[in-house]
Amino acid sequence: MKNVLIVSGHPNLEGDSVANKAMVEAFAGLEGYTVDRLDLLYPDYKIDVAAEQAKLVDADVIVLQYPVFWYGMPALLQKWMEDVFAHGFSHGSQGKALVGKKLVLSMTIGAPEEAYGEGAAVHVEDLLVPAKGACALTGMEFSGCEYTFGVSYASRVDDAARKAIADAGRNQAARVAKLIEEL
């Protein structure tokens, strides 16, 4: 069985999220999955580097779960990566702790799909460049990405819309779990 670490990078999962919250709840119920909620652990952005590095060492598969903010990951998740993926741990002549681990991205995108499609200024594949670069530097294997479009604040107009967004989040969690199962 794979040891899967879900790193939830939403900075306010309880207050601001529907899809991401539904995904984290779905992952928490899966055997072999550990959910690392950065919003609860580090609301002050003071990351316990040793604790987070130990979680990464124990994981076979690392999933970064986050909403796309301004074409990238939220500041909390970016700070986590900057602190935890330290020279000497994840890269450099002595940094081999992540070699061979699989990295999966699970993103929610507020905009509709056409905003990232053919002819758009930014294609969804462009959002993967930082993760693929991190994999190249650390020796991790980029193992795929799942994403859901159209889950912005503006689309949460009523209970039916919120339910549809939560369902989309649960569906994405199932796709991520299937991807991991097939690794």
TrEMBL record:
<dbReference type="GO" id="GO:0003955">
    <property type="term" value="F:NAD(P)H dehydrogenase (quinone) activity"/>
</dbReference>
<dbReference type="GO" id="GO:0009055">
    <property type="term" value="F:electron transfer activity"/>
</dbReference>
<dbReference type="InterPro" id="IPR003680">
    <property type="entry name" value="Flavodoxin_fold"/>
</dbReference>
<keyword id="KW-0560">Oxidoreductase</keyword>
<dbReference type="InterPro" id="IPR046980">
    <property type="entry name" value="KefG/KefF"/>
</dbReference>
<dbReference type="InterPro" id="IPR029039">
    <property type="entry name" value="Flavoprotein-like_sf"/>
</dbReference>
<dbReference type="Pfam" id="PF02525">
    <property type="entry name" value="Flavodoxin_2"/>
</dbReference>
<protein>
    <submittedName>
        <fullName>Putative NADPH-quinone reductase (Modulator of drug activity B)</fullName>
    </submittedName>
</protein>
<dbReference type="GO" id="GO:0010181">
    <property type="term" value="F:FMN binding"/>
</dbReference>
<feature type="domain" description="Flavodoxin-like fold">
    <location>
        <begin position="2"/>
        <end position="168"/>
    </location>
</feature>
